[in-house]
Design brief:
The protein is built from 4 helices and no strands. By secondary structure, it is mainly α.
Length: 90
């Protein structure tokens, strides 16, 4: 079974990355949630190397995160630097 983020884990990730109290959909929050989902899925794929459907989902998440990060880099460079440092990206 493919791992899913529990409500508690997802809400903690959102709290870590939100800019204000009701921020649940900003690019920074979405990048944080995607990164956490990707790490869970990568662990699953190490245990189940033939699960190609989940591998495709992981590739879609990687490209979505890349698009969100390029948007942040262009529109909000300070937020991009902050999230890249927090998530230890590039």
């Amino acid at each position: 079974m493919v791992p899913m983020l529990t409500k508690r884990v997802k809400s903690n990730v959102i709290k870590d990355h939100q800019e204000h109290e009701k921020d649940t959909g900003s690019a920074a929050v979405q990048v944080g949630v995607l990164t956490r989902q990707m790490s869970e899925l990568a662990t699953h794929l190490k245990q189940n190397p033939k699960d190609n459907h989940s591998r495709r989902g992981l590739l879609k998440m990687v490209s979505q995160r890349r698009r969100l990060l390029s948007y942040l880099k262009e529109k909000q460079p300070k937020a991009y630097e902050k999230i890249a440092k927090k998530l230890e990206l590039k």
